[in-house]
Amino acid sequence: KYVRSGQWQVAWHPSMMLGYDIYGTTIGIIGAGRIGQAVARRARGFAMKVLYYSSSPKPEFEKELGARRVELDSLFRESDFVSLHVPLNAGTRGLINADKLALMKKTAFLINNSRGPVVDEKALYDALKSGKIAGAALDVFASEPTPADNPLLTLENVVVAPHVSSASHATRARMAVMAAENLVAYFAGRQPANLVNPDTFKK
């Protein structure tokens, strides 16, 4: 956008196109299941410190990455990036509200790749619009497809995607192979590897 709009033609100045480093910063993972832990491993590649909030401790995760389990409020206060990886249920709906956003640093970013209703969108809009937090990256919304007049879409400090952030040729191929392997396992009387509710499986 900057180049296409012709703004590159202006003289350089010290504050031009300034962004935020991630190297050596702190990421807060909310929901330390397989996805949350995978994100944390990638973050460690940038020497990021890893905090996490989870209903249960993850000792192997802590040992592998030096991750530290903290209370939710502490995670919001200490993190430079807050990344959401929780399922949507009665306990997580509206979890990220005005009170939690108010705890974040003004230089912090919220990333939501979980489910839209986990975040109070009105509270998020207010926090972003007023500069209480630096920005947000959203792959999910409270209502999908989100309406074109969603106020969040008017903000320059929000990056959005239509719930397809996992989309790549390699990912789609792996999804197809995984589905086929699960079917083969099921019809062979074995438990599929990716059951969400393995307690329901009967041979």
Tell me the layout of helices and strands.
Elements: E1 26-30, H1 34-44, E2 49-53, H2 59-65, E3 68-69, H3 72-78, E4 81-84, H4 98-103, E5 109-112, H5 121-129, E6 135-138, E7 158-160, H6 169-187
Parallel strand pairs: 1-2, 1-4, 2-3, 4-5, 5-6, 6-7
* Average predicted local confidence, pLDDT: 94
Q: What is the architecture of the largest domain at the second tier of CATH?
A: 3-Layer(aba) Sandwich
Q: How many separate structural domains? A: 2
CATH superfamily of the largest domain: NAD(P)-binding Rossmann-like Domain
Q: What percent strand?
A: 5-15%
The CATH topology assignment of the largest domain is Rossmann fold
Uncertain parts: none
**Any idea of the CATH class of the largest domain?**
Alpha Beta
N- to C-terminal separation?
56 Å
The profile of the biggest β sheet is: 7 strands, parallel
Count of helical stretches:
6
- The H-and-E topology, N to C, reads as EHEHEHEHEHEEH
Radius of gyration: 20 Å
Structural class: alpha/beta
Characterise the protein shown here.
- The chain has 203 residues and is an alpha/beta fold.
- It folds into 2 domains: 148 residues, Rossmann fold, CATH 3.40.50.720; 32 residues, no CATH class.
- Helix content is 29%, strand content 13%.
- The protein is built from 6 helices and 7 strands; from the N terminus they run E-H-E-H-E-H-E-H-E-H-E-E-H.
- It has a 7-stranded parallel sheet, sandwiched between helices.
- Strand 2, helix 2 and strand 3 form a beta-alpha-beta unit.
- The protein is globular and about 70 Å long.
- The termini are far apart.
- The mean pLDDT is 94.
